[in-house]
């Protein structure tokens, strides 16, 4: 009980600032400037993908395969205007399909990264905007 009272008195003594001192003031909530946060997030994401070669290889192989499949659609004659419209529709479908495939394949990676982001944002390392630029 004596230690408890002594510790409470010490906490009360150390909690009051000395006379003539100013409160702490920080210009920003985060420890780094915006561009440094962006570069740190870019580098962290680069390392994350570099350390996951299976994920990167599957995305690369799938993209090359789809490029070959959709590339065969653009070969042939362009004698009619309908051929041009068909090619433009195929380009639209290829772009849409690749976007959906890439976004769905990145979902498991982002699910793991989300917990890391919450921890690092709570620590004041960077905000959400540089993290979004890094992805």
Helix content: over 70%
**Derived structural class:** mainly alpha
CA-atom Rg in angstroms: 27 Å
Mean pLDDT, to the nearest integer, reads: 83
InterPro entries: ABC2_TM (IPR013525)
Subcellular location: Membrane
Main location: membrane
Pfam families: ABC2_membrane
Protein model, in words:
This protein has 135 residues and is mainly α. It is 75% helix and 0% strand. It has five helices and no strands. The chain has helices at 2-15, 34-50, 53-73, 81-122, 128-134. The chain is elongated, with a radius of gyration of 27 Å. The two termini are 55 Å apart. Its main location: membrane.
Compile the SSE list and pairings.
Blueprint: H1 2-15, H2 34-50, H3 53-73, H4 81-122, H5 128-134
Helix pairs in contact: 2-5, 3-4
Main location: membrane
Transmembrane segments: 57-78
Subcellular location: Membrane
């Amino acid at each position: 009980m004596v230690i408890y009272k002594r510790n409470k008195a010490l906490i009360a003594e150390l909690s009051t600032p000395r006379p003539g001192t100013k409160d702490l003031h920080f210009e920003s909530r985060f420890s780094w400037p915006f561009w440094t946060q962006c570069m740190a997030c870019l580098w962290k994401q680069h390392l994350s993908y570099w350390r996951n070669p299976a994920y990167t290889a599957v995305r690369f192989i799938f993209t090359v395969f789809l490029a070959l499949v959709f590339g065969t659609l653009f070969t042939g004659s362009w004698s009619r205007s309908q051929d041009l419209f068909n090619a433009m529709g195929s380009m639209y479908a290829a772009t849409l399909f690749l976007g959906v495939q890439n976004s769905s394949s990145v979902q498991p990676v982002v699910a793991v990264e989300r917990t890391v982001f919450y921890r690092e944002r709570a620590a004041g390392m960077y905000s959400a905007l540089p993290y979004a630029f890094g992805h």
